[in-house]
Amino acid sequence: MSARSVEAAARGLPHTLYGVSLLHQGRVIGMGRIIGDGGCFFTVVDIAVAPQHQGRGLGKRIMTTLDAWLRANAPVSSVVSLVADGDARHLYAQYGFVESAPYAVNMEYRVGPASS
Ligand SMILES: CC(C)(COP(=O)(O)OP(=O)(O)OC[C@H]1O[C@@H](n2cnc3c(N)ncnc32)[C@H](O)[C@@H]1OP(=O)(O)O)[C@@H](O)C(=O)NCCC(=O)NCCS
Predict the structure, then answer these.
(1) Can you spell out the DSSP letters for the chain?
(2) Which is deepest, 4, 14, 35, 36, by most CB within 10 Å?
(3) Structural domains in the chain?
(4) Quick check: CB of 98 below 6 Å from ligand 1?
């Protein structure tokens, strides 16, 4: 996961459809969010577990919670997508996600600072 600006986070987080945070001794050690239009498109983003807590089933716990929300709230014909970084695809495959390539590939660009 790459860093976001404070402005980007402050604008984006309130538009979360559904999100989970895992707390340990009062500190957030894991998170995951669903964003989208609430009808046609849902996107799973920001799945992360703190390095010292990885490999103990917490990523699955986050995904199981998001998956339950999607099953209750995503209407028939809607599309649920995500971008899997590296080997995290093995986690998402357990929740029904399949690779869309080669018929579709993720395309993106990142907004940089305005040049003057
Ligand atoms: C990806 C991430 C959230 C997984 O969290 P985690 O708590 O370590 O995962 P879990 O312990 O719940 O394991 C989840 C399952 O996915 C599999 N898995 C997770 N990461 C894997 C990896 N790197 N390679 C292979 N399998 C992996 C595990 O084997 C496990 O399946 P199993 O129980 O059937 O063996 C965590 O590694 C992370 O935060 N990584 C850095 C941020 C990141 O890359 N996020 C994903 C952005 S798309």
Answers:
(1) -----HHHHHHHGGG-SEEEEEEETTEEEEEEEEEE-SSSEEEEEEEEE-GGGTTSSHHHHHHHHHHHHHHHHPPTT-EEE----GGGHHHHHTTT----TTT---------PPP-
(2) 36
(3) 16-93 (3.40.630.30)
(4) no
Q: How far is CA 54 from CA 25, 26, 51, 104, in A?
A: 16, 18, 5, 31
Closest residue CA from atom 16 of ligand 1: 91
CA of 100 to the centre of ligand 1 (A): 20
Q: What pLDDT digit, counting tens, does each position of 61-79 carry?
A: 999 999 999 999 999 999 9
